[in-house]
Amino acid sequence: MEAVYLTFVFVLAIFLGFELISKVPSTLHTPLMSGSNAISGITLIGALASLKTDNVQLAAILATAAVALATINVVGGYAVTNRMLEMFKKKDEGESK
Amino acid sequence: MSSAPIFINFAYIISAALFIFGLKMLSSPATARRGNLVSAVGMLLAIIVTLLNQGLDYKWIIVGMAIGSVIGLFAAYKVEMTSMPEMVALFNGFGGMSSMLLAWGEYAQHPQMSVFIAIVAFISAFIGAMTFSGSMVAFGKLSGKITQQAVVFNGQHIINSLILLITLAAAIFFTMQPDTAMGIKAFYLILALALVFGIASTIPIGGADMPVVISLLNSYSGLAACAAGFVIHNNILIVAGALVGAAGMILTNIMCKAMNRSLANVLFSGFGSATQAASGGDGPQGEAKPATAEDVFYILEAADSVAFVPGYGLAVAQAQHVVKELGDLLEENDTEVSYAIHPVAGRMPGHMNVLLAEANVPYDQLVEMDDINPRMDTVDVCVVIGANDVVNPAALEDESSPIYGMPIIETFNANTVIVLKRSMNPGFAGIQNALFFRENTRMYFGDAKVAIQALVAEFKS
Known about the structure:
The complex is a heterodimer of chains A (97) and B (461).
Chain A lengths: L1 H20 L7 H12 L2 H8 L6 H31 L3 H6 L1
Helix pairs in contact in A: 2-4, 3-4
Chain B lengths: L5 H20 L3 H23 L6 H21 L5 H26 L5 H28 L13 H21 L4 H22 L7 H22 L3 H24 L4 H6 L5 H6 L13 H9 L3 E6 L1 H6 L2 H13 L3 E6 L9 H8 L7 E3 H4 L8 E5 L8 H4 L18 E6 L19 E5 L2 H13 L1
Parallel strand pairs in B: 1-2, 1-4, 2-3, 4-5, 5-6
Helix pairs in contact in B: 1-2, 1-9, 4-5, 4-8, 5-6, 5-7, 5-8, 6-7, 8-9, 12-18, 14-18
């Protein structure tokens, strides 16, 4: 039953994603990519939750590496997206800086 | 995960809502930056509540997060805007790798899996590993560390099909008995094959098709996270992964449409490989009319409206700042300036927009192809900078052309077209550009940056 429930969530989220993303203008496609890159770092949540004190050694090593890689995605992704979006200015704003 | 306290799961719902709001705010440049922050707050909330779980090994969590944060921040603030495609490719790869490791670690910890969990663990590991190695190839191509040309050889499709068949067999073996020694071997075999498949499926794709590949890998990295969410029964991974997966798919679709090619054609045809380029050598011939900096200056000075059409050559020459300088001088001269941007110009979706934004071009001057084409005949001068195939009229007129049917920026409808190019060499598709021989076209040869600097100097003197 749990499998059905998870798949249900998945299907709804996919449709929601299509709906949301199709409204993003092509001007912002690069920030969209780096921003969604940051969101795909959500595996960090899974990696953190699986890093338990009672882990076997192999699992602990793998989870630590997963935490490090996912953190790169999250931190780097949001930071670079912010850096890019900071540069998008309207005409009058652009002059003031 | 099902044992997690209920408030953690409620917090995840809030995180998911914040991600959705964040993406929604990305639909306008005016709210996009706040949207990114909203999304980041959602992520921070999810991380904090996850750390409240019982029995976590904080020592390794701190080590992992510290390493990741340092590398991430360093990369994010160090990267040149022209190198964004490489950076995004790299991040896609890390995302895929982390999903793969998560599935692998979960398997190492709980080898007794139900068939359903084993199937999603396989999907997560396979997509994750393939995303990783594929992204590394894309990174290598984009940064010029390996050839940008499509690498094709005989029997390529047969080898790829074989890899997939063996993977499928191993997957069936693994899902039937994950907790046996054979099951473990099957899992390792899957990982190895996925890594090989990622490389094998990315090398036949040429440089200018990279926008499609990056979008696709972006989608995969989301789907891998999604599958990992199934493995550990975590809704937030599934929702966020699905959102990213959908984003990547939409971008892939937009990029394919902008080239009038199917995804299968981009992935398997080896478009832009050495053999193809050679066969497409002939085409329209004629006499191109070269112009000097002084000629171009007089044309621009007399123009009422100028539209710049940038392409990958702009990024290579790092010419975005001088273009903006020239644009400013033109505006002072009461010329209307805009920048017409083709969806696949550059090496990733939106690449040109980011470069020009970096040079302080206001986003209301960035015009999409579909907006400028209908009013192209009112534009006095089009300046094509380092773009080729996306302005080739053969796409509209020559049915035998490999790019026939691809939507282009119809610069030839402008009064005068100035093409700034290093040489007469054909572009990525390997076909000669009829635009260069048109009556209203002037060729202005030179490195984009140097050539535009010369124009700026003309204006100032």
